[in-house]
Amino acid sequence: MKYKKSVQAKLYSEGVKMTVRETYMKDYLITDCRKKELVQFCRNADNEDLIMILQAAIQSNSGLASKLFITLTEGCGYDKICTFASVPARKTDYQAYLRKALKILNDMLLLKNMPADFPAEKI
Length: 123
Fold this sequence. Notes:
0% strand
């Protein structure tokens, strides 16, 4: 199902910078259906896919990468992780970096599946 672009999504697509905290999945142009697919991919990942997920977490926020990786692959939320580890971020910021990690992972998967003969832009 298509949805209308939010004001933030329009700004994002035009290259206007927004803070990670105020950027949601729809602003990254990722539908709820695609988000569910990404989460399922993370839960079923193995070997090189786990490495890709870790890379996305590191690119999202290197200081939170290990915790983001646990959330993505194991499904443990912020509150549960806080019971056994120190998380150097507020819940809203943590969730924002989690969304960013999913966006980065989505981009990586799209690039991975891009045909080798895809025409590159000429400079």
